Fold this protein.
Amino acid sequence: MKTTTRKRSGSNGKVKTNGRATTNGRKGGGNSQGRTGDIPNELMFSRIVSNMVENVFSTSRRALLSKILDERRDIDEEAGYPKVINSEQYRLMYDREGIATRVVQLMPEESWALDPTVQENEEVDETDFEKAWDELVNEHNIYSALSRIDELSGIGHYGVLLLGFDDGLELNEPVEGIDENGKQVGNVERELIFVRCFDENLVRISSYQRDETSPRFGLPTKYEITFVDPTTQETGASAFVPFKEVQTTVHWSRIIHIADNRKTSEVFGVPRMQTVFNRLMDLRKLLGGSAEMFWKGAFPGYSFEVNPELGDVEIDQEDFRKQFDDFSNGLQRYIALAGMHANSLAPQTADPSEHFMVQLRAIAIACACPVRIFMGSEAAQLASAQDTRTWNRRVDRRRNKYVAPMIIRPFIDRLVILGVLPEVGEDGYFVTWPDLNTPTDKDKADVAEKMTRALALYIQSGADIIVPPLEFLTTFLDLTTEEAEAIIKAATKIIAEEEADAEVMEEEQRLREEANIPDEGETGDEGDET
């Protein structure tokens, strides 16, 4: 392949060689494959990727979609919906609108309602790995941090978990013990100092892995994280100075990248509010409009009319305005009217609750969540058993398909590689979750009552001739074979004891009759005659 070198006028001595800029005639760089820091256009590349994510639905594509759906009007423009939603808009909606916050928090709160258990094996004795993990969880409140980053990562396209180690290096340097492919190097021991959570609004990806032969191809290599300096915060009522923002470059080995709802990208997920953003804006308009309607309409207006018999009358408008202002906004309950009378205008308000529920149902449908569960704990108690079981299956699936493999395991694996946690055996470790369908005491009592009735009817009807006890217990009452056999064994023992007691009583009765001994409580004939 020939290399074309061309000097361009006005370039201040810069020469462009193979698309790479050099200065003073020196040849630039060499092969950049696998070396992200040597790429001059790395920052530009990251900005292009970020812009592509922010503009995933471009204007031209939306215009085409609008024409396909309805050529006559642009619904987004008429309804005030944004064409492109950026991370700042997502964060503002999350911070200011409670229902938007609920959309983001819903799945993380349900998934982390009960903490999981991380075990190396099922033996009673704890292993070194299990002891170290439990100590780490208690020392750094790990489950709280993991649940928080699960929530924050859903505000925008991703979130990051920053890990602080005792290696004495700057955050922009790689941690010793791990190579650029994410593999363990050597045998180091580290201590975890801190864990911090950041949403997309505070993070910018500044470089990506460009080496196509690397297992980390296309993944971030450097992040720009915005910290706040609490020392710049002044207290007191006289002044308020905002926190100072400090931007720091962080190497990927110190970051756990979290992205929920991934589709075609392993870096950027779909924000949880994206599919319902228009509905959230509708709710803002609906709730804000209803409050404004009540503010203006519930307080009756007044019209003031001059007695027509007085003819042309000059009104002191300034004094009249002051009186009415005192009446409306103060404690004054009268208006001095001379030659005038006031007419009260009927208030005009409408009940927005049905319109509100329409929007709320649309959001719940988009979130695949029963409306009563979406509305909170009190309403969730009224949700049907079928809704609850379906919802629990969805939560359990998210736990095992996303939370455990995409949040918990990457975190633990990184700590094992860097020597914070001891290595595990060949079988690895496993993450288990408490059963969401565990019956309550009331459920257990209801089940016991129904099973008891079923057994009583089974025995009284003589159905054991057709369906043997073992089959009835396992097939109809859904007991295990071991449980059914234990019940039958216990019942057989009780029946045998009762039959033995009956035989003893019959024998005693026979001996009494032979000896002509009356039963207890009976009185003989001789006693009657006496």
